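Protein modeling request. Please complete all fields; requests missing the sequence field cannot be processed.
Requester role: graduate student
Desired output: 3D structure, token encoding
Chains: 1
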Amino acid sequence: MTRILLSCALGMSTGMLMERMRDAAKEQSKEIKVWAVDTGSIAANEGEFDVLLLGPQVSYLLSDMQKKYGDKVPVSGIKPIDYGRMNGAAVLAYAEELIANFGK
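Delivered output (104 residues):
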């Protein structure tokens, strides 16, 4: 099971994206766990996720999050176009790509 943590300022907009990702995974018969938290709650979830994706509004935290978690899991920003369109299938595919290429 792929475990994807989404984070934004309050966890609300990524919460909407999370639902779209779950729908996309169901349509593709993929088993995932995806959840959304505010940036202050990322540390409480450490060790529970396979990839960390940040919403565009908190992209200023990307470097810090990569330093903190990047040696354990892929950490990236969600592409603004996919975020704005709430394209759950594209974000799911991106998360899977990051995991597949991690450490290569």
